[in-house]
Design a protein that fits this description.
Elements lengths: L1 H16 L8 H21 L7 H24 L5 H10 L9 H9 L4 H29 L4 H9 L2 H12 L7 H8 L2 H12 L8 H26 L3 H11 L5 H9 L4 H29 L1
Helix pairs in contact: 1-10, 2-8, 2-9, 2-10, 3-6, 3-11, 3-12, 4-6, 4-13, 4-14, 5-6, 6-7, 6-12, 11-12, 11-14, 13-14
């Protein structure tokens, strides 16, 4: 409980910093450090501990199985809405905040041993989907064309993904490096959560009925479907819990920023990210408790 309160405190710290004279690139600076230092260090420490078995493959597979299902739901949900609204939800429903919000919450609810699975879900799921699927959606709805070369470049030069591949082939790091990697990895949770809090926005004219449907789909329907799939596959309980919780994370901040930059329903995009983060602090512990009872 204390760790969960610490998450809320760090989010509030970020919100309060909005009121200060913080540099214009404050959030970008935090994100840069997390992406280039904190996440790679965490990847090098945690990923080699995972054995590639049915549970690991299930964790990797579930976001990709959910993608076409959510795509179909969004198409149905937005059949009477403008193309920019559809584009925003096509980005923000399938893509969850599985690193900046996901990893701290997974660590709090399930412990450090679950982080490896969370990283697998995030890097092979959310990151690849943002790079491949997200870039394709933005290109299609902006200019009617998909830039394959740009997508490939983003994939190859994203530091956490590079280190993920390295860790899978190299294995556990030398013991002499572990204390330094642990120090760098420990910065991930506080920096990521302060950055998330600083980025929260709730302003603009919002279609609240559509927002409510989108939040239910993102925070409740997705994890329920994920649980149903993994439960039938007989995946290891810890992998099930991680995958279900990650699938129920709020919309990815990066996806929201890209949607707003592209002019895809900016107010709705900001609200879906902001309200999602607040509401998930209630839904995720409830989902975790329900899974503990069932598993």
């Amino acid at each position: 409980m204390e760790q969960f309160l610490f998450i809320i405190v760090l989010l509030l710290v970020g919100v309060l910093i909005q009121k200060s004279d913080a540099p214009a690139d404050f959030s970008k600076s935090l994100n840069f450090f997390v992406i280039y230092v904190s996440l790679p260090a965490t990847v090098l420490l945690q990923v080699p501990k995972i054995a590639f078995n049915v549970s690991a493959l299930g964790t990797i597979m579930i976001p990709w199985l959910l993608l076409p299902i959510m795509f179909y739901f969004v198409i149905l949900m937005t059949k009477n809405y403008p193309a920019d609204t559809r584009a925003a939800l096509l980005l923000l429903i399938p893509l969850g905040n599985t690193s900046f919000v996901g990893i701290p919450i997974i660590k709090t609810l399930l412990g450090s041993d679950a982080i490896g699975y969370a990283l697998m879900y995030d890097q092979f799921g959310s990151f690849l989907m943002l790079t491949l699927y997200g870039s394709a959606v933005i290109s299609y709805y902006e200019i009617g064309k998909v830039h394959k070369r740009l997508i490939l470049k983003k994939l190859l030069f994203f530091p956490p993904f590079f280190f993920l591949v390295f860790a899978l082939f190299f294995g556990e790091m030398p013991l002499s490096l572990s204390p330094y990697l642990e120090t760098l990895a420990s910065t991930l949770v506080p920096l990521a959560l302060v950055s998330v809090g600083y980025s929260l926005r709730f302003s603009g004219e919002i279609d609240y009925p559509l927002l409510s449907k989108a939040l239910v789909l993102k925070l409740i329907v997705m994890p329920l479907i994920a649980f149903g799939i993994l439960f039938k596959l007989g995946v290891d309980p810890i992998a099930v819990q991680v995958s279900v919780l990650e699938s129920g994370m709020p919309s990815m901040i990066t996806a929201g920023a890209l949607a707003m930059a592209a002019g895809f329903a900016p107010a709705l995009s900001a609200a879906l990210v902001g309200y999602g983060i607040i509401i998930c602090l209630i839904t995720l512990p409830l989902i975790a408790y329900a899974m503990q009872m069932l598993l």
